[in-house]
Design brief:
Structural class: mainly alpha
Order of helices and strands: HHHHHHHHHH
Largest sheet: none
Length: 241
């Protein structure tokens, strides 16, 4: 246990802050993706409650951090969840900008944020636990430091998405990239499974990104084709009006 009056304690604090800065950007992106279709007022609620739920679960996860690393199939299941979330977010990109139903859409955004944050925060939680050397005070400080980083970052990404829709596609690809990279370190897989594949982690990460983009765009295209188009006479009347 580190003593707060010693230099190693504050070195550990700086290490945890660096970890949150480096690894918190992904969480900011997924929060922005989940909240982008909400009204401005709902966006703040979605970010607040989504981050609150995610932070609460991080406190729980930190107690089981070392065990989480040893659980087989956990990262594979998490990677599949991330791919599903990325595809779902890309599919909603092609939806119209109609009115948003406040309760269901807000709750859906919060749920997406919490699920994705838990999956994506596995490495973050493990890294913070290692840097904290068993000090729950340092763990708490690390999680508290991550909150403003993620909240501010998600608001910045939301503004970019409003102005540049291509950021949405890039965000979906990022989720796929993270998912592909998670698979390679799952304890359930044989240690030498990817030994013969050069740059295996980057190859799997790229495969994950391509998978999300391909499935998301394919399903979005099919959904767009299935939507009934407006009758020609209604279009003509709207132009005359």
């Amino acid at each position: 246990m580190l003593d707060p009056s010693t230099l190693p304690f504050w070195i550990a604090v700086l290490q945890i802050i660096a970890i949150d800065i480096l690894l918190g950007g992904d969480n900011a992106v997924v929060i922005a993706l989940a909240c982008r279709r909400l009204t401005p007022a709902q966006r703040y609620q979605g970010i607040f409650w989504g981050v609150a739920g995610a932070v609460t679960l991080r406190f729980v996860m930190i107690f089981f951090a070392l065990k989480l690393l040893e659980m087989p199939w956990l990262k594979i299941v998490g990677a599949l969840l991330l791919i599903w979330i990325g595809v779902k977010l890309l599919m909603s990109e092609d939806e119209g900008d109609g009115d948003v139903a406040a309760p269901s859409s807000l709750l859906s955004a919060i749920k997406t944020i919490i699920i994705a944050d838990v999956v994506m925060s596995l490495d973050n939680v493990i890294a913070v636990a290692a840097a904290a050397h068993g000090s729950m005070l340092l763990v708490a400080m690390g999680i508290l430091v991550s909150i403003p980083i993620v909240v501010w970052g998600s608001q910045l990404v939301l503004k970019l998405m409003d102005r540049y829709p291509q950021v949405i596609t890039a965000g979906g690809a990022l989720l796929g990239w993270i998912a592909g990279g998670m698979i390679i370190s799952d304890p359930a897989l044989p240690p030498n499974l990817f030994a013969s594949l050069p740059f295996a982690k980057y190859v799997l990460s790229l495969a994950g990104a391509v998978t999300v983009l391909a499935i998301g765009m394919l399903l979005a295209r099919r959904a767009a084709q299935a939507r009934p188009s407006a009758p020609a006479d209604l279009l003509a009347n709207s132009k005359e009006g």
